Structures are given as structure tokens and as C-alpha cells.
Amino acid sequence: xxxxxxxxxxxxxxxxxxxxxxxxxxxxxxxxxxxxxxxxxxxxxxxxxxxxxxxxxxxxxxxxxxxxxxxxxxxxxxxxxxxxxxxxxxxxxxxxxxxxxxxxxxxxxxxxxxxxxxxxxxxxxxxxxxxxxxxxxxxxxxxxxxxxxxxxxxxxxxxxxxxxxxxxxxxxxxxxxxxxxxxxxxxxxxxxxxxxxxxxxxxxxxxxxxxxxxxxxxxxxxxxxxxxxxxxxxxxxxxxxxxxxxxxxxxxxxxxxxxxxxxxxxxxxxxxxxxxxxxxxxxxxxxxxxxxxxxxxxxxxxxxxxxxxxxxxxxxxxxxxxxxxxxxxxxxxxxx
Length: 336
Ligand code: HPA
Ligand code: ZN
Fold this sequence. Notes:
By secondary structure, this protein is α/β, with parallel strands linked by helices. The chain has helices at 5-9, 25-34, 44-49, 56-66, 73-89, 102-105, 111-129, 145-155, 180-188, 204-215, 230-239, 247-253, 259-267, 279-282, 286-297, 301-314, 319-334; strands at 12-18, 92-99, 132-140, 164-168, 192-197, 219-222, 242-245, 272-274. An eight-stranded parallel β-sheet has the order 1-2-3-4-5-6-7-8.
């Protein structure tokens, strides 16, 4: 995909990025070798060829399988450093990265190992690449709520390093309501709240209603099915609850990019932004996602800049950083 100069230069904010979903096959092989792990595939091409997902569940199988090579703090450092370097090269100024501690603690890798590796990369990337970042800890919704609560408690000594909590993994049969108590406690502890409401899932509207009315999240990840319920769309617009949409990811787990839903939601006053989700698996980082919006949505540069501003607005970045990125977006737009 050819990335336009404008899309590349546009200052960007990424709010829906699973750090474990940035594990490229090349790094997977390097870490497998370092940790003496035998992979089922023998070449990078074979690994890429095995990525032929047609729904969320088939993607998640590869996603969790891939993580097995992540064992030491250095592995998590290398993973995050590779992502932050790539993001900085695409003019991402600020990123809120999801991480899935339970996907590691459930196979014997400690919380402390995971977060120390990620944290070191964050500090180094800020200093050397000028990219700022924060962490959002996601609970796996297909595990019991008790395990999520135990993970929340385990995270408390590292609270200063974690900005918010989210909910991901297999949504079918795992409604937001299952985690009401966990999220209430997370709020009490000072964490900001977001949750996945994946695209075209069974009971999607009821799940979206729960996250808005019962859990009272600040943002929703994906969530574009809200258009099926105009009253809920109005609530999002009125309360400024934003959506983090992931066009390339949508093409893999559903029947299209859903870009037409993004433009419709924006026209109704909902703050939607563009993100990459699991770029190593879906084959596109944030610039490729913006380019798909430009090509398929037939939108102009001003609209792309609006999408980037939406991300700034609904982000949890410090106010001075938000102001600086907005000014930079305006400057790049005025040059084009
Ligand atoms: N949805 C649910 N779980 C996930 C995702 C997603 O987009 N990415 C990684 N885990
Ligand atoms: Zn996601």
C-alpha cells in the first residue's frame, strides 16, 4: 500500500494497539531462538501464510500461540521497542498501549517481568525517539472474573505505570456485565476505563448499552455497531464517549473495513479515531489504516486531520501534550 505524504506526515495518536499484537514473525523467530523454543512453522513466510483469519476467534488462536516466545523482561522490551520505533517512524506522537498480563501469568511469566520490560522500552523511546506512551491493562474476558480481580490487585504496586484498564479477548458469551465489580474497583483505584465491544458480535447492542450505562466507560474499543441504536449514538455524542476503530482489523474479523460507519458516526458528532489493533497479524500499522480510510472512504485531508484530532480529544494524554499535538496537526494540514 502506497502511503501518501500527508498521511505519513500527519501527527498521530494511537489508542487501540495490543502490544502483543505487534509481534512480527521475524522477532518471533529471534525470540524463539534466544529462548530455545521450537516453533511449528519453519519460515517467516510460512507464519504469515498461516494468518488467514475469518473471525475474532480464529485470530485469537494465532495471537495467543505467538505469545509463547515472550518469556523474559528483555523479550517484552524488544517487542515494545520494535513497535515504538515503527510508530515513531509513522509520526505517532503518543500511544496508549494495551497489554494482556493474564496471557503471560497464565503460562508462568510474572506480571513484574512483563511490566518491567514494557516500561523500560517506554522510557527509552520517549528519550530517544520523542514518542510518549502510557499502558492500559486489559483483562481477558473469556477467563473468570475472579482471575481479573486477582490481576487488578496484583497490578496495584505498579499503579503509577498503568493509566487505565480495558477488556479484550473472546466477546461471545462474555458480556461486559461479567466484569462490573472488577471495573468498579479499578475506578476506585484511580484507573481510567475502556472496554472492547467488537464488531458484529452476538448481542452487540446490549453489550454496548452495558458499557455505557452500567460500567460507565470513558471510551469504547471498536463499538461501531452502536449505529444500530440511534438513542445510544446520541448518548455517545452528548457525553463525548469516543470509539477506537480499526479498519484493517475489521476486514479480517468481519466483512469489511466499516469505514462508512466511521464517517456516519463522525457526521453524528461521535468522536471516532483510527487505530491498528494487532498490526503484525493484520498487516498494517496506523499509517496503513489511515491510508485505507483515505482510499476507500474517499475523504479529504481535512477529514483525516479531524480523525487524528478526535484521537487527541478522547486520549488520556496530559493537557499540554494534547495542545502541542493539536497545534502540529493544524500546521501540517495548513501546509497541504
Ligand atoms: N478484540 C478482542 N480481543 C483482542 C483484540 C481485539 O481487537 N486484539 C487482541 N485481543
Ligand atoms: Zn483490540
